[in-house]
Amino acid sequence: MGALDGLMQGFQIAFSLEGLLFVLIGVVTGTLIGMMPGLGPISAIAIMIPVTYGMNPSTALVMMAGVYYGAVFGGSTSSILLNAPGISGTVATSFDGYPMAQRGEAGKALAIAAISSFTGGTVSVVLLMLFAPALAQVAVSFGPPQYFALMLLGLTAISSLSDGSTIKALISATLGFIVATIGIDGQTGTNRFTFGNPNLMEGIDFLVIALGLFAIAEVCFLVLKRKDQSLSNQANIGNLKISKQDFKEMRGPMTRQSFLGFLLGVLPGAGATIASFIGYITEKRIAKKPEEFGKGSVKGLAAPETANNAATSGAFVPLLSLGIPGSGTTAVMLGAFLVLGIQPGPLLVQDHPDVFWGIIASMYIGNVFLLILNLPLIPYIAKILNISRPLLISLVIVFSLIGVYSISFSTFDLYLLLLFGVVGYLMRLLSFPAAPFILAFILGGMMEQAFRQALTASGGSLMVFINDPISVSLLIVSILSFVVPFIRGRKKTQ
């Protein structure tokens, strides 16, 4: 069966009444769950697995795929409106989405996010259909040295994520690295920065850090600045209309990040988080007015939203073609496949063409559903900001507490949440950027693991990082990305 015949069979499944219904159920459920801080795609898919018992496998997996990209899509809402990113893939969305909401353009920010997500999702589905088998071979060629170099490239974003002092950005990143090392070392079993406290032995969850540094810190700021009249603009939804100039600004980032996000999503372990950060810094570096980033830039919002949704489809390449889950979310998806008696891998197209092509075809329809459903609902979703400030603050605190407690069922994590909230507020007060902290925390653990695996495989030789053309190319780009902005800065001051 050729690709075109397979896709036609997939569309027959996706366009059937049953297929359309379950795609719709999947994207709506995923969007609603994704909007809640603490309940990201992993929780959404895990919650829906019991619902699929007894269902036709192709229909069930079409619905689960809808839940996945619907949850990523919905995650941007809490980042934009409340500065409370529920998943790591939407942290970069808050950098410019929340400032837009603060200046009374929440509706426009949500519309830009919806259109960017649709573009990234649709382009990546086309790429998935055309290049899945070939890209799967590229994905498996990435080993620990290549991943270490890729993570290092992501970390060069630190200098781009600071609008003020680079020294403060580096201090913030160092703190993020330190927090990432807390817990039992997986290789040696050594306790690191646990101070004998058993609650710290498993490390600190991402959600505790993200909600503390962003959501709780914002609550502290709103409480202490409650008499500041300039914050009243935040309650305005603003005009939803996107101007021609806005479209012109979005066009470049959406085009570039659709391809880049998809390619990064193909790599196991990279996923939407790295794609969104690299998408953000790439656009900031090539922008004519980089100083607008972090203050409500249209490009700064369109880039990460396009990249994280493109990466979501890209993550299906290693899952469907090789049976390898590239992230925690696709690992849960793999579980859903196995529960339904489907083994993803090289034989999936041959043994279950209805499932393979049905999922790909459903993504086209799912992305259209997301756009059609969400654009008309934006005025109603954005009305969250019309809630009185005391009630809104209470809701943010309650959802943050519930989100963190539902992950670990640990009251200790709630204390940590409050602690990082105070840390986030102090960082904001002293002009220390929180973004380098969260970026270093996310990449630190993965980077350390890749570094150790590479050294173990090479017998301790650092030459493993420069003997491979992919890793050495990435290392050169990383060094240039870090050094060139400093050189440019010095030339400007001279």
From TrEMBL:
Keyword Transmembrane helix: yes
Alphabetized InterPro entries for the sequence: DUF112_TM
Alphabetical keyword list: Membrane, Transmembrane, Transmembrane helix
Protein name (record): Tripartite tricarboxylate transporter permease
Domain DUF112: 20-439
One Pfam family in the UniProt entry: TctA
Coiled-coil residue windows: none
Transmembrane segments: 12-33, 110-132, 138-158, 165-184, 204-224, 259-281, 322-343, 355-381, 387-407, 414-442, 462-487
